[in-house]
Amino acid sequence: MARSSTFPEIVELNVGGQVYVTRLETLTAAPNSLLWSKFTQSSPADLPTDSKGRFFFDRDGFLFRYILDYLRDSELSLPEFFKERKRLQKEADFFQLPELSRRLAAVSKDSSSTDDSGEQEEAELTSPVTTSSSCSDRALRSPGASSGYITVGYRGSYTIGRDIQADAKFRRVARITVCGKISLTKEVFGETLNESRDPDRPPDKYTSRYYLKYNFLEQAFDRLAEAGFHMVACNSTGTCSYGSSDPGEDKLWTSYTEYVFSR
After folding, report:
1. Which has the closest alpha carbon to 156: 141, 135, 171?
2. Each residue's pLDDT tens digit, 199-221
């Protein structure tokens, strides 16, 4: 039987395409869990690896961050309006973490019950878990829901041929940007928010450099609506130029559009 010392102290994982670097001590923090078993009862050669030698698990890479957080602190902290609790519970079951699964199930049971006043009871957990079966209703009625503005913008381009009756040739939206207060944008968009262009700004500050991991504006609109936001304004600008010096070439149009949401 191989000992855990056969593994390095710092372990690199590839979980569903997402790379994590953590301590061996963290992975083995929960006795009898799947990760504990893999990294104490096996040797490195027994585990599948990716092309760069990282230990590979074919699971949800984005939700694995919450598994790691739980292993580090034995607590569960989810973002407000977290919508993937059932999927996270499935991941907890897979990684054989019964206490984490129990806590998530307790939140599920509690969210479907009401007290005498008709308001939802709070989950009796030792960790700060926030969840809701109706994000929009929760955001509108909860006194703790923060108010503010979020602006969603995108650049698009398309071509129109000389025959204006012909169909326009639309191009794929390259990037959907997000402007607003850091804490508010993270609350609404969570893991779909790419912070790589402004990673260290404090939560109480504002940014216009974030963008979304979406290809469709409607995905952003759905997320905002579920969080209780309503569109209050929009504007768009556009320019037209020829693709070359030949006036017979198709016209290339570029535009920038912003949508302002408020809660």
Report:
1. 171
2. 777 888 999 888 898 888 888 99
- What count of residues does the chain have? 263
Question: Do 237 and 181 lie in a common domain?
Answer: yes
Question: Which residue type occupies 131?
Answer: T
Cα 75 to the center of its chain, rounded Å: 20
Contacts of residue 78, defined as CB under 8 A and 6 or more positions apart, other chains included, come to 66, 85, 88, 129, 130, 131
pLDDT at 51: 92
Does residue 179 fall inside a structural domain?
A: yes
Q: In terms of domains, do 154 and 238 share one?
A: yes
pLDDT bracket for residue 128 (50, 70, 90): very low
* Judgement on whether residues 155 and 243 belong to the same structural domain of the protein: yes
- Is 135 in contact with 226 (CB distance < 8 Å)? yes
Q: Are residues 71 and 15 in the same domain?
A: yes
For residues 175 and 235, membership in a common domain is answered with yes
Q: In whole angstroms, give the CA distance from residue 69 to residue 62.
A: 12
Residue 197: pLDDT over 80: no
Where would I find the H helices in the chain?
24-27, 34-40, 64-73, 85-94, 98-111, 135-141, 182-189, 217-226
pTM for the structure as a whole: 0.45
Structural domain including 188 reads: 149-161+171-262
Asked if residue 78 belongs to a domain, the reply is yes
Does any domain span residue 244?
yes
The terminus-to-terminus CA distance of the chain in angstroms comes to 58
Identify the pLDDT of residue 137: 41
pLDDT at 138 over 50: no
Using an 8 Å Cβ cutoff, are 188 and 224 in contact? yes
Claim to verify: residue 90 and residue 155 sit in the same structural domain: no
